[in-house]
UniProtKB/TrEMBL annotation:
Cellular component GO terms, alphabetical: axon; plasma membrane
Source organism of this protein record: Oncorhynchus tshawytscha
The protein's name in its UniProt record: Neurofascin homolog (chicken) a
Underlying gene: LOC112254849
One annotated GO molecular function: cell-cell adhesion mediator activity
Keywords: Cell adhesion, Cell membrane, Disulfide bond, Glycoprotein, Immunoglobulin domain, Membrane, Repeat, Signal, Transmembrane, Transmembrane helix
Domain Fibronectin type-III stretches: 661-754, 759-863, 867-963
CDD domains with a match to the protein in the record: FN3, IgI_hNeurofascin_like
Family according to the record: Belongs to the immunoglobulin superfamily. L1/neurofascin/NgCAM family.
Record region (Disordered): 1106-1187
Ig-like domain span: 62-150, 164-250, 267-355, 360-449, 455-542, 546-633
Length: 1187
């Protein structure tokens, strides 16, 4: 367990098994980790022991688990701790470099390294200066399999210099003038946080007129007499010291000369200063803050714009619109930003050109590889930045070029990729990728571990998982192996692998059941398999009924001294024990002697004031729970009727004018001749008195007309007879019988919109591509929009396809273009290639579309095809695969054919890619498999003249005969010129087809038969033939039948155990026949030696007609033991003719399909030829003799 740290505790099995073993990306790890934690938190501690044991057993290069920040600022009052934690097996050893040189930790008495860790602790208890240890540190973690590195850690000590007091001369300004009170705190590390206060430690009130800038200075857009104070002070606090330094700058009161009438002045910028434009560079991911503070009388308002478009949702406006903020900048935020300050006298603008650069950031971060011997793979390190970063590779902390003095034929570096070829044991190492530009750098470690291991299960055996019905659940199966095992799930040991539909298998081995039902109960088996073996584990799933409260407690009121009763009736699964607990006001309820709890309720006798509150019933089982709450109100005796009478009245504790401003004030027209002003009414607790009503004021903006006002008790007022879409200033005030409340801020509302009166003109297109086109038009006069301009809205639809006979959907689509430039243009994307399109454009405000522009027709160019409509891969037999597909729904041009690429897949090994090409009218192909032990992966794509379309990928199914559908009782009954073939089966009738293959005269013939019954019969006309094995021993050539059937789950009868056994038995019988035949011939074939070994020889040798000598006696004419007698008692002879063996007779096949003829002998041979017995030469007689 010493190998584990906090990061593994958050996702133990997933990090070890997926990141280190399965090459899994970080987003999948996060997904599966969350699923794991949600589903198996209760089993967490149990699994940790397996992970710890696994890490202990498997050799692994070092992996950095924890390190300090790159820019590390420390508090000088504390000890300095520089973190470096790593794991590996064997346990890594640690070393450090400081400023690029070896740092000898043992020689410095203030520096210690933690046990089993590389973390440094620098102590200053016995003296020393933290500043002496500033510098750049880097940690190295090493074991026998490689070296991992941390980032270079820049250690700096926080500095908070003293701020000397200053006494400044009084600031004398005239009323209405602008003023800037400078702060200028001394620099610190990190920079201090500044703010302005007075001597009473109260913050200086800031508003549109007075505010603090980003540099800490206090800006007055115009000075008023009330700004004269004696105690303006700028203060600063430092992050690490947490010390406030007060009155660093003490200002005598700004002396403000009061003028009888302050002259109005146009705006001018206090910040930024100088020209009418400025530039700023910011790094991607950092915070962007743009500031515009303006002086003027009246106080100017600030508005922000971005050239070429609206401000996006990332933009936030702070400090009374004076600061534009984007918390995390991206490249799209670059451009020209404009701030405009205006008041009644005039306006002024300032442009800020923002340039976004970027320190390196990851596109593809290298990940750990665990490879088996002879496997090939690659490490990829891709990063982006501005400017583009430089990629450098290191191995075990040294530049890879320095380690490549001798060429390594199994490793090659190609830019940002290292390619490994046929790796071998002993070549494990840790590789580092460094991506850098002058804005920063990235460093990533990725180990390559060469491991050869059969699958192992890491989880507990035979787990029991309980889940509530209709809930999602996960069955866990953590596993490991190298090469990467293939994992499949089975239910109750039957059927094919579970994946798809109700089930989903994650790469970490977990099986998700999306909605558990009662029929999902059972035993689930996960099987991990690679070329070195297989391992399996089982999980038992039980589906339970939910625990729920069927009668919940209800709110009730009870008089003091009476009894209150809350119901809580529960329904749950009978096999799950439950507990019922009660809470009062979210705290455990102590029952004591007075409160009584039974199975379905809680009783509270003799209710008193302390019993009032909210009571919650909670019922829990081991896997779920349910809660319900109700409130008890205790009433005083005799006051119940009065309480009911005043229930609907609010009597405030104090009465006064309203002190709240109604929120949600807005003005918007519902018609083109009105404006509806609405707001949120005050709450009862905010009214402060009776007779609440509202005063509403409105007037045309920028016209100088008098305010119109009305008083209403409702929450809206409609202003009639307005002009179309004109701006109004609106304000609101709440009143009651005790006086008016505060006025709201002035907001801008608009009267109603009308339909735009003019269309865009000269709509035309250019740069027509297969999927996009440039659109151009002449904009409308803004005065004709008659509302808030929203966009130029393009309506377009597909009139037809240029492919003959292809019907298309003519549904209209829209795309909006926001543009206010003189010559607008836009790009219309996502078009269908090789199609006829039509379009027109309107200008749109918030409510209406304007009249349409001219219509434009155009034709997109030919493109690449979509996916074929389907791609079926059916394996009828182990020797071949049938592929079938259909043309794409959207060919996107003229189809010229298809390409089929395929390769063998065996575990983690893949074979050479092979390709077949087909004409466009070919939609099926049968592939003979060169390697029946492998699965095959197929990639099908349609082609046009432009190129190949989207690839439809698929894998050959597992050919298995372990399913329930089988074939049995295959029999072949031959006749003179045909054979009757029959068999039984249990395949689906009407949806199956049988393929009968038979060999005749060395040629393979095939017939297909539809399934029409549980027993099938087929007559095959076969001209049976014979073949000679030798002049003496002959046999009949049989027609061997192979019967297979194919359906969705194919079964090959040739791999059935009973069929193989039957064939072996037939072969054994034939072999015995042949052996006996040849043994009898080798002994002369006359008679058994045992019958003649004791007879004396005659004095004369007689020579037979064939030239052989025959030693015989009078007993020679007697039948040999075991031979057959003829009908007349004589011994029959054989002249080895085919007729003698019964050609044309009633020979029969046995049930196993073999042929055994009924051998007969001739009756018309001479007695003189009877000396040459036929018994020995007849195979049938040889069998009798053997018997």
């Amino acid at each position: 367990s010493g190998q584990l740290n906090k990061s593994e505790h958050s996702c133990a099995l997933r990090v070890v098994h997926m990141l280190a073993i399965y090459h899994t990306s970080s987003d999948i790890i996060a997904e599966s980790c969350s699923l794991y934690l949600l589903s198996y938190l209760s089993l967490f501690a149990f699994f940790l022991s397996f992970v710890s044991l696994f890490l202990y057993l498997v050799k692994q290069p070092p992996t950095i688990m924890k390190q300090s920040l790159k820019d590390y600022i420390v508090d000088p009052r504390d000890n300095i701790i520089i973190e470096c934690e790593a794991k590996g097996n064997p346990v890594p050893t640690f070393s450090w470099r400081r400023n690029g040189k070896f740092f000898n930790v043992g020689k410095d008495p203030r520096v210690t390294m933690r046990k089993r860790s590389g973390t440094l602790e620098i102590s200053f208890r016995s003296g020393g200066r933290p500043e002496d240890y500033e510098g750049e540190y880097q940690c190295f973690a090493s074991n026998d399999f490689g070296t991992a590195l941390t980032n270079k850690i820049l250690l700096r000590v926080s500095k908070s210099p003293l701020w000397p007091k200053e006494v400044l001369e009084p600031v004398v300004v005239g009323e209405g003038s602008s003023l800037v009170l400078a702060c200028n705190p001394p620099p610190g590390l990190p920079p201090p946080h500044t703010f302005w206060m007075n001597s009473a430690m109260m913050s200086i009130t800031q508003d549109r007129r007075v505010s603090m800038g980003l540099n800490g200075d206090l800006y007055f857009s115009n000075v008023l007499a009330k700004d004269s104070h004696t105690d303006y002070s700028c203060n600063a606090t430092h992050t690490y010291t947490h010390i406030y330094t007060h009155t660093h700058v003490s200002l005598h009161p700004p002396k403000v000369f009061e003028c009888r009438k302050v002259a109005e002045t146009p705006p001018n910028f206090l910040s930024p200063t100088g020209t009418d434009s400025s530039r700023m560079m910011v790094l991607r991911g950092q915070k962007l803050q743009l500031e515009c503070i303006a002086a003027g009388v009246p106080t100017p308002s600030i508005k922000w714009f971005k050239k070429g478009g609206d401000l996006n949702q990332k933009v936030k406006l702070d400090n009374f619109n004076k600061t534009l903020r984007i918390d995390s900048v991206s490249e799209e935020d670059a451009g020209e930003y404009m701030c405009m300050a205006n008041n009644q006298i005039g306006s002024i603008r300032h442009s800020i050109f923002v340039q976004v650069k970027a320190a390196p950031y990851w596109l593809d971060k290298p990940f750990n590889l665990v490879l088996a011997p002879d496997e090939s793979s690659r490490l990829v390190c891709r990063a982006n930045g501005n400017p583009k970063p430089l990629i450098k590779w290191l191995v075990n902390g040294e530049p890879i070029e320095r380690n490549s003095s001798l060429p390594n034929p199994r490793r090659s570096v190609v830019g940002d990729t290292i390619i490994f070829h046929s790796v071998q044991i002993g070549s494990s190492a840790v590789y580092q990728c460094n991506a850098s530009n002058h804005h920063g750098y990235l460093l990533a470690n990725a180990f390559v571990s060469i491991l050869d291991m059969a699958p192992r299960m890491l989880g507990a055996k035979n787990q029991l998982i309980k889940v509530i019905e209709n809930n999602r659940t996960f069955l866990d199966c953590p596993f490991f192996g190298s090469p990467l095992p293939e994992l499949r799930w089975f239910k109750n040991g039957q059927g094919s692998g579970l994946d798809g539909g109700q089930y989903r298998v994650y790469i970490n081995g977990s099986l998700e059941i999306k909605r558990a039902r009662v029929e999902d109960q059972g035993t689930y088996t996960c099987v991990a398999r690679n070329i070195l073996g297989k391992e399996e584990n089982q999980v038992r799933l039980e589906v339970k009924e939910p625990t729920r409260i069927v009668r919940a407690p209800e709110h009730q009121s009870a008089f003091r001294g009476t009894m209150a009763r809350f119901d809580c009736r529960v329904k749950s699964d009978l096999t799950l024990p439950i507990t019922v607990t009660w809470l009062k006001d979210d705290k455990p309820l102590s029952l004591g002697w007075r409160l009584k709890k039974d199975e379905d309720s809680l009783s509270i006798p003799n209710v008193h004031e302390q019993d009032e509150g909210t009571y919650t019933c909670t019922v829990k089982s081991e896997i779920d729970q349910d809660t319900a709450s109700a409130r008890l109100t205790v009433l005083e005796g005799g006051t119940y009727v009065i309480a009911r009478e005043i229930t609907f009245f609010f009597v405030p504790l104090c009465v006064s004018a309203p002190d709240a401003i109604p929120s949600g004030l807005k003005g918007w027209g519902t018609k083109n001749t009105n404006m509806e002003i609405s707001w949120e009414p005050l709450l009862d607790t905010e009214q402060n008195g009776p007779n609440l009503h509202y005063s509403v004021w409105w007037r045309r903006k920028d016209t100088g007309e008098e305010w119109n006002n009305v008083t209403t008790v409702g929450a809206k007022h409609i202003v009639h007879d307005t002009e179309t879409y004109v701006p109004y200033e609106i304000k609101l005030q709440a009143r009651n019988d005790f006086g008016p409340g505060p006025e709201s801020n002035i907001i801008i509302g608009y009267s109603g919109e009308d339909k735009p009166t003019a269309p865009p003109t000269d709509l035309h297109v250019s740069k027509i591509d297969s999927t996009k086109v440039n659109v151009h038009w002449t904009p409308v006069d803004p005065n004709t929009v008659l509302g808030e301009f929203k966009e130029y809205r393009l309506y377009y639809w597909r009139e037809g396809s240029m492919v003959k006979g292809l019907h298309v959907n003519k549904e209209k689509k829209t795309k909006g273009f926001y543009s206010t430039v003189a010559q607008p243009t836009g790009i219309l994307t996502d078009l269908q290639p090789y199609s006829h399109y039509r379009m027109f454009m309107v200008v749109a405000n918030s409510r209406y579309d304007g009249p349409p522009s001219n219509h434009v027709d155009f034709h997109t160019k030919e493109g690449v095809p979509d996916l074929p409509q389907f791609f079926k891969i059916v394996q009828w037999s182990p020797e071949s695969i049938h592929l079938e597909w259909d043309k794409p729904l959207e060919p996107n041009g003229i189809l010229i054919g298809y390409t089929l690429n395929y390769q063998a897949v065996n575990g983690s090994r893949v074979g050479h890619m092979q390709m077949e090409s087909f004409l466009p009218n070919v939609t099926a192909y049968r592939l003979r498999l060169p390697d029946q032990a492998s699965r095959y992966r197929f990639y099908l794509a349609a082609h046009t003249q432009v190129g190949a379309g989207k690839v439809y990928a698929g894998e050959s199914p597992h050919f298995t005969n372990d399913g329930e559908s089988v074939i049995w009782n295959l029999t072949v009954k031959p006749n003179s010129n045909y054979a009757n073939v029959s068999w039984n089966h249990n395949f689906p009738i009407g949806s199956s087809e049988f393929q009968l293959e038979f060999t005749l005269d060395g040629k393979i013939h095939t017939q297909f038969v539809d399934s029409f019954g549980a027993k099938q019969t087929l007559i095959i006309f076969l001209p049976l033939s014979v073949c000679f094995i030798s002049p003496i021993c002959v046999c009949v050539c049989q027609c061997f039948c192979l019967l297979t059937a194919y359906i969705k789950d194919q079964v090959d009868i040739a791999t059935q155990g009973w069929f193989i056994g039957l064939m072996c038995a037939i072969a054994l019988i034939i072999l015995i026949l042949l052996i006996v035949c040849f043994i009898k011939r080798s002994r002369g074939g006359k008679y058994p030696v045992r019958d003649k070994k004791d007879l004396p020889l005659e004095g004369m040798d007689q020579k037979g007609e064939d030239g052989s000598f025959d030693y015989h006696s009078d007993e020679d004419n007697k039948p040999l033991q075991g031979s057959q007698n003829s009908l007349d008692g004589g011994v029959k002879e054989s002249d080895d003719s085919l007729v003698d063996y019964g050609e044309g007779g009633d020979g029969q096949f046995n049930e196993d399909g073999s042929f055994i003829g009924q051998y007969t002998v001739k009756k018309d041979k001479d007695e003189t030829e009877g000396n040459e017995s036929s018994e020995a030469t007849s195979p049938v007689n040889a069998i009798y003799s053997l018997a």
